[in-house]
Design a protein that fits this description.
The chain is α/β, with parallel strands linked by helices. The chain is built from 9 helices and 12 strands. 35% of the residues lie in helices and 20% in strands. Strands 3-2-1-4-7 form a 5-stranded mixed β-sheet. Strands 10-9-8-11-12 form a 5-stranded mixed β-sheet, with helices on one face. A two-stranded antiparallel sheet has the order 5-6. Bound molecules: zinc ion.
Length: 306
């Protein structure tokens, strides 16, 4: 029996989960992400893998889901929020330590793959996965395969920038413009994320509260909050509308903390048509089936169906 290890490599924790060929989760373990040295980071990943090897008496296949990607041309990891491993040859180094091939993909690509392969979604051949988490990320799966692009950057939708309609909606010169971790400004990552939702509320409504409280106020029909949420849905529509025009997916699946805000699934399909071409169809839009497990599940799937 073959075992598939999916590692969700995050800025604060690393989770390893073990799956069988049917992608059923058998085991998982998580450790904090070492922050001091690359050597510690490699050791943490190695220890998780060896502990799973011992437990299952095997050498499992290793897939990593990264908050970024490994540049295929240079072999260097581009993962700015994991400083100790950013710019390092992580796949070569891990593979040398663990004596087997190690594969990696962007975590949102892994998420999209995990959802696209679920039996409930197999009728959809083109799947766009979008993560509304700490940041805004995306992945595109076409006929069961991740589209990762030339260097591995495809799907980094968080670094698309606010467009004409978005700036108009936010009030032109009064629009809050946020700096992005990538070094640029006005990236969608800082708007269409849980963090962006909170920053926009602070700057448009004038009160700094967390996303949970905003959502509670919305359901209580708090007037300013209802109007804020409508603006946020419009902002999603003008931005995600462009993705639909470019990709024409059968399904969009949302993951991440903010994807639990159920009003999105009611309001977004209605807000999209003005931002699409006349004959375009709004795709099926739904919440992730596998929730937080999607990252490890999709990473484990990197060795299935070669
Ligand atoms: Zn950016």
């Amino acid at each position: 029996m073959a075992y598939y290890y999916g590692l969700d490599i995050g800025g604060t924790k690393i989770e390893l989960a073990v799956f069988n060929e049917q992608l059923e989760k058998l085991y998982s373990e998580r450790v904090p992400t070492p922050q001091t040295s690359y050597e510690d980071w490699l050791y943490a990943v190695e220890t998780l893998v060896r502990s799973a090897d011992t437990k299952f008496n095997t050498k499992g296949n290793i897939g990593l889901g990264l908050p970024g990607f490994v540049n295929r041309e240079t072999g260097l990891a581009e993962i700015t929020n994991i400083r100790v491993a950013d710019g390092k040859t992580i796949l070569n180094d891990l593979s040398a330590r663990l004596g087997r091939e190690v594969r990696a993909e962007n975590d949102a690509n892994c998420f999209a793959l995990s959802e696209a392969w679920d039996e409930n979604n197999q009728q959809y051949s083109t799947v766009l996965g979008l993560i509304l988490g700490t940041g805004f990320g995306g992945g595109f799966v076409f006929n069961g395969k991740i589209h990762s692009g030339r260097i591995g950057m495809a799907g980094e939708v968080g670094h698309l920038q606010l467009n004409y309609h978005a700036l108009k909606l936010l009030g032109w010169d009064n629009a809050p413009i946020y700096e992005c971790g990538c070094g640029n400004k006005a990236c969608l990552d800082t708007y269409l994320s849980g963090r962006g939702f909170e920053m926009l509320y602070r700057d448009l409504v004038g009160e700094a509260i967390d996303a949970k409280t905003i959502i509670t106020r919305f359901y209580q029909q708090h007037e300013k909050t209802v109007s804020f949420v409508e603006t946020f849905i419009q902002l999603m529509a003008v931005s995600i509308g462009n993705l639909i025009t470019a990709l024409d997916p059968d399904m969009i699946v949302f993951g991440g903390g903010l994807s639990n805000f159920d009003y999105i699934y009611e309001a977004l399909p209605k807000a999209l048509p003005p931002h699409l071409m006349r004959s375009a169809k709004v795709p099926v839009i739904k919440k992730a089936i596998h929730g937080d497990a999607g990252g490890t599940r999709g990473a484990a799937a990197l060795f299935l169906r070669d």
